[in-house]
Amino acid sequence: MSDEEGDDDWFESAFEGDTGTESSEPDADSDTASAESPAEDERDSPFGDGESSLFDDGGDDPFGASGDDSGGLFDDDFASAFESASGPDGGGSDGEFEDEDFDSDIPRIDVGIDGLDRMIQGGIPERHLIVTVGSAGTGKTTFGLQFLHHGLERGENCVFITLEQSHSAIMDTANDRGWDFDEYEASDQLAVVDLDPVEMANSLDNIRGELPNLVEDFDADRLVLDSVSLLEMMYDSPAKRRTEVFDFTRSLKAAGVTTMLTSEASEDNPYASRHGIIEYLTDAVFVLQYVRSETRETRLAVEIQKIRNANHSRETKPYEITMDGISVYQQANIF
């Protein structure tokens, strides 16, 4: 590592400090691969970097032109695209909740939430990148912790990275629900890392390079980042935001771990993330929201917006948050 990169060791130190494990020195092959990797501004990104872009020569930006998050992927010929698609997910469910499992050899895992797993036929494919979108108080952090707890119970290694709360707050939340995160952390099966979002944004290049190696060293099976919205807020330019988030999600996929991100919902649209980016880059999207009836009764509801390579229900189902975690009532209706 060069002297200029020395200041970015805080991420690796934070990870090692919470896992209680010793870091391993990078081997010669990893140094060579790093030296041969293209510079950040030389890598191709479908969102562009302000200097060069896939869409510079008149191509269509799926998020809209000139850094505007409006516009659409299907602006030119939606009818043709719709007719040629085999389903809403490009070969997935036709909107009905069928009984047969999706015909695939891809290894799958359960989320670990009662009712919701029954809405997903056969489970989520391993190494998928998942996002849970919801407004404040809908249980996004609980969703992520429960996802990890389910894996820990099955002997998997798990990592929770929080940009919103302290390490102790996360541990207390899990332990209060009887999930014994203290014991899992003591046995090096769990790592809970709290990062400052400003430092993370300033050192994002370093994190993108280190995260796959750190996940491999920890032999992690599941990872949660709570929340990607704080990372997105670090960038004023929509074009820069799209490029950075795209590169970050690409590094998570390269890490080879099943990852769940949490994201704040848009103030104008509960079905979209705050900046309308992350749902396009992930393989599965869960939407948590408040639903109010004509009598002003308010309930929590979950909807599976998409899961690539998996059949799933498209119904909106009520759920509640208790000391046992989140429970989805698959057989019930909202009102």
TrEMBL record:
SUPFAM superfamilies: P-loop containing nucleoside triphosphate hydrolases. Gene3D superfamilies: P-loop containing nucleotide triphosphate hydrolases (3.40.50.300). Residues 1-108 are annotated as: Disordered. The lineage of its organism: Archaea, Methanobacteriati, Methanobacteriota, Stenosarchaea group, Halobacteria. This is KaiC domain-containing protein. Residues 63-87 have a biased composition (Low complexity). Keywords: ATP-binding, Nucleotide-binding. It comes from Haloarcula limicola. One of its GO terms (molecular function) is ATP binding. CDD domains: KaiC-like. NCBIfam families: KaiC_arch_3 (TIGR03880).
